[in-house]
Amino acid sequence: GLLQFSCTSQSQKMNGVSFVAAPQPIDQTNVDPVIKVNANYAAIMPFGFLKKLSATEVIHNTDRQWFGETRKGAKQYSELLQKNNIKIMIKPQIWVWNGEFTGFIEMKSEADWKAFEASYESFILEYASLAQEINAEIYCIGTELHKFVAARLEFWKQLITKVKKVYKGKLTYAENWDSFDKAPFWSALDFIGIDAYFPLSEEKTPSLETLQKGWQPHKKKIAALSKKLDRKVIFTEYGYRSMDFTGKEPWDSSRKGKVLNLKAQEIALQALYNEFWKEDWFAGGFIWKWFHNYEKSGGSKDHQFTPQNKPAEKIVSKNYKMYQ
To answer: Fewest beta carbons less than 10 Å away: which of 104, 120, 182, 223?
Structure first.
């Protein structure tokens, strides 16, 4: 009705959560907190595993994995979220043993590249067919694979063509903040996807002004690419840890020596919303990360990324509500 219209003068964005895979199926109690934070999108992240950076096999959809990491689990999560009017981005990811950075995945020979590509393709087509089956709004064809993309453009072009035969929705790829402008195939996709862990400030608890100023050079570059390619931008991941120096190296997920700082996370998130959610060329983003068992997640002693049960959650909720 009219009332609804008057409240939504802002244009709608993808107000997303990165919904972490768990060992078991989810139920309505796991979805309610997602609705409460005013999210309208969830990234569902099935996983493939590599034994090392040069391993040729992406192990995926096996019964040794957690339920949420498999096709069956991704489907169950997606369908329950969809029942609650949450739209879905399926975003398959690779985990390299010991947590090595996926951007460094690189094969040692042409034969190895060919074997790896065949395995990666089966992983991506598996979840493209799931995305089609559940009618997901968006499918992400890879996450932070800079060296693989740089070395094997022909493969990626063919992969995109094959994905489009299987899946009819919108496509993106999630590239890391330091190489998003180097992915050569954005024009074959619908959105430019960026994992937005840009360094913004060296301070312990930077002010809103400092952080927004820190965004300017990055934002200029993002806006320019969006304009040049005529593609909107999604932050396929964004987020900050609730710790000192959270704006310095926001990608850092190491455990040791971190000092809790709930305020810094709050301010950093607000700075990001202030800079991006109002922009026409920006489509929205997926906060990193959101766990299914709400009561046990985050909290005032947790210095990790989740905003759950922290002051930051109110910041997310308030901003998402403005752009529902």
So the answer is: 182
